[in-house]
Amino acid sequence: GAVVSQHPSRVICKSGTSVKIECRSLDFQATTMFWYRQFPKKSLMLMATSNEGSKATYEQGVEKDKFLINHASLTLSTLTVTSAHPEDSSFYICSVHPRETQYFGPGTRLLVL
Amino acid sequence: AQKITQTQPGMFVQEKEAVTLDCTYDTSDPSYGLFWYKQPSSGEMIFLIYQGSYDQQNATEGRYSLNFQKARKSANLVISASQLGDSAMYFCAMSNKQGAQKLVFGQGTRLTINP
To answer: Does B44 touch chain A (CB under 8 A)?
Structure first.
């Protein structure tokens, strides 16, 4: 399988600040990465598809100006939560898909106070 | 649109017994993939098993097997000889194999293994 890392693993920030989350594919060159969000006791929901060298594709209802995605290389995608608010507190997790399978990073827990 | 349904919010099983976690799906695509993931309390999503819609045989990975019944649109996960470490949330998911590999997840089943 593919090995995926995320940084930070957890972050606490004040309302109104921006938070950047990194997703790294350590052993697989990922032209596409996916960003999911999971609220407590809920399932995972796809937020956006990160495309290397081009714009991300956002799912319906996800604000692209609030969740900025950059995929500058085949091993790194970043998700920036801009002007974070308490309702953005969630578990953010990225994935890569070598062939037909899909492997996830360890996730980032964001708490906005 | 694709949809995944897991009807068991919680399951309690005695250690060493086999357990079946249910998953049904709905899609109009002829080509798709079905996945099972384990999510322990740490939050990481651990890939367990994959079944392609055109695969003739049921997928198996160690103690995990996927009971794929295409006509019934079901993809149940069977865990044999359950262990205490199997206690976790389990998610069924599907992808459009022809598309961007986006995953749609079910609601999850919390499995508890009792000693």
So the answer is: yes
pLDDT tens-digit series, residues A9-24:
999 999 999 999 999 9
Residue with tokens 């194999």: B97
**């160690």: which residue's tokens?**
B62
Q: Cβ of B23 under 8 Å from any chain A Cβ?
A: no
Burial code (b: 16+ CB inside 10 Å, e: under 16) for B61-79 equals: eeebbbbbeeeeebbbbbb
pLDDT in tens, B36-52: 999 999 999 999 999 99
Q: How far is the C-alpha of A36 from the C-alpha of A104, rounded, in Å?
A: 10
- Across the beta sheet with A67-73, the strand order is A4-7, A19-25, A76-81, A67-73
Does A46 contact B47 at a Cβ distance shorter than 8 Å? no
Contact check, Cβ <8 Å, B47/A43: no
Lookup: tokens for A15: 């309302």
- Which residues face A78 on adjacent strands? A22, A70
Q: Which residues of B touch A2 (CB under 8 A)?
A: none
Q: Could you give the count of Cα atoms lying within 13 Å of A51 in the half-sphere of its Cβ?
A: 9
Q: What is the mean pLDDT of residues B18-46?
A: 95
Q: What is the mean pLDDT of chain B?
A: 94
Taking the C-alpha atoms of residue B50 and residue A97, their distance in angstroms, rounded to an integer, is 12
Residue range A35-59: mean pLDDT, rounded = 94
Question: What integer pLDDT is reported at residue B98 of this predicted model?
Answer: 57
